[in-house]
Amino acid sequence: MPMTGPTFAANIFQEFTGAGFIGTDSINLANAIGIGGMAEIVGKAFDTTDGPGTAANPGTGAGVGLTLVVGAIVSLQIQQEIVILTGLPPQPDMISMADAIGDSFETETGLALLASSHSPMFAGPAIITPGSIAVVGADIGDSIESAAPTFVGNDWPDFAGAFGNALADSLLLASGNITVTGVPPGTPVAFPLGPNLISPAGVLA
User: Considering the entire predicted model, what is its pTM?
Assistant: First the structure.
């Protein structure tokens, strides 16, 4: 199962409920973060560090799950940004909310399907290069904000931005294991005697 906005949202709401963070808008908040956040994450590009492997044909890479995304770190960043925004110390509900988002994000990114192309390595391991996933916190925040059109409070854009920054920053640390497979080069055949059958292959100078 790949990462999706609806599954991320459902996991957040389940975590909200389990922590007792229940309000009239808790489902709307979960949907905004889950669906809005994933809209700016799914499909983003990444770079890989390849090898050691076998060359020299192109290969296709596949893997499952981002590593090094830590829910507790996501939660802590959300808490810190909200404290800066509000000027208030962390409150129990805010901590429960942040923990639910962080834990759900760690779970959801563990489902990520990783697809890549490689050349000239056609067989071997590769890993996602940390820092290469092309996400921007402000863009994720804007998407989260837009996914909750009924949230009209003056502070909502800033809160959405805090969520977006935390998700994006955690992905700056993320990696992922990929297995590269492909077709090996054909077995060389003896070059025939006689005229050069592949002429003109080059030019005498």
Answer: 0.86
